[in-house]
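Hey team,

Sharing the Meiosis recombination protein SPO11-like, putative run so nobody has to redo it. Sequence (481 residues) first:
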Amino acid sequence: MASDSSQFYPSAQRLTNALESLTLSLIGNGEDIAPVESNGGSSGGSLRKKRKLSLQQMQQQVILINDCYSRAVAAAAGDHNARELSVVPPAKTLTLARCTERDLYYMHSSTFPTQAHVTGSIRAICDALNNNNNNNASAATTWSHGKPPPVVGCESSVVWTRSALGIDATAKSILAGSNTVIRLQRSAQVTSSTLSGEDNIQLQRFGPSGLAIGTALVDAVVGISITERPPPPPLTLPLLHSSSIASVALLVVEKESTLRHLLTVDGLWEKAQHWTFLCTKGFPCAASKSFLRVFHQHHPTVPIFILCDGDVFGVHIAWCLCRTSADDRSWYEQAVRKCVRKRSHDTEGADSSAASNSNMSFPSSVEWSRFVSFIGSVRFIGLTASQVAQLAQPGELTAMPLNEVSRATKLRAEFHIIQKLIREHSSVVSQGESRSTAAALNTLQQFVEAVDGLIAFKRKAELLCASWHPLGILGAILSIT
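Structure output:
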């Protein structure tokens, strides 16, 4: 993230003008921004039904737009980075600069049946605001007339995201590191009982318990550094047969219990003092995805290890961390997800579908380079089926149900599509980018082998089992990475 916050937080006047124009377009002709919802489709293709925006949906989006007005006023007062309060005020209008989707749902629970309706309305608003920059159309939401209506005030210098509208994701992920320092914008107003008025965050003082991070904090990051201290003793791990272990790395762990065990019981907090640790607590939130990209931006050569359970959900979680950020869905969903939905059961058929899709969108060269570079820095270290077969006892293995086998097949098709896209564009990259391309293809091959192994093995296991320890697994995995 750059230090200039205007890239992410437009001025109050620009936000007000854009939202006012969107409101007039919404009320004046609801059909122009009516979402097209998918009905249950057959295997031959999904059926779609076009309809006008209902009065209730229009009311929902107008309510959210009105809430954005209050955040615009707060932004004009210089509070655009302020965090939400833990207790939502009883008033029905926002008085704070930032809030979460959950806050919006509780404030308007009589209007929104579920929180998913809030999420859908926010996406529709962002898509409409970004219409002048891109013809956004997601896999879940398209528009009845091809694109949302033009909105006055949507300059190309601003990407309209949840964060730009003052909407945060609730802090879920945990960040830890004994020598890691996070630098924030001096103007950032990250109000928290633990971070009040700080420009630098020393993760060491949070200990192995770590610091919960949200999008407001990640958006304010301008630097990530590993403090210069005497080098720690060599990292020795059980079952480790290789000395080529990265002295500086970022380790992403799926489950909090696994991270706690690694840092405390097995002493990785002391043994890997120059490592940074991130726990996603399951599928990653927007903050964890954004942090990984900020980290890679400041440390492009530092490897990112991902350690998940030995099942298809673990592989899926790891891939979610590699994909584009939550706010940039357009090109990825058009180029990949539509191909996956139209794929045949044959993987080669899915690849042909990807190549022949004339409606496929593609990112800018800068965006694509960042995507490939980031994937190239990732190392999926497990658990894989072969590691599970080697380390787990028979009583710790569980049979994979058919729905998980189907999910693994879909993921494999997605990996093949991305591999094909990278190979097709490898001929037009520079020599430096070719190294990133090779690394990205190697990472994708790790994912392909992981899902192929799960499909063939048809067994799964979790990291924390009775007869093994995460550190022992980590050592075994790194020794063959």
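The first helix runs from residue 12 to 28.

Ping me if you want the raw files.
A.
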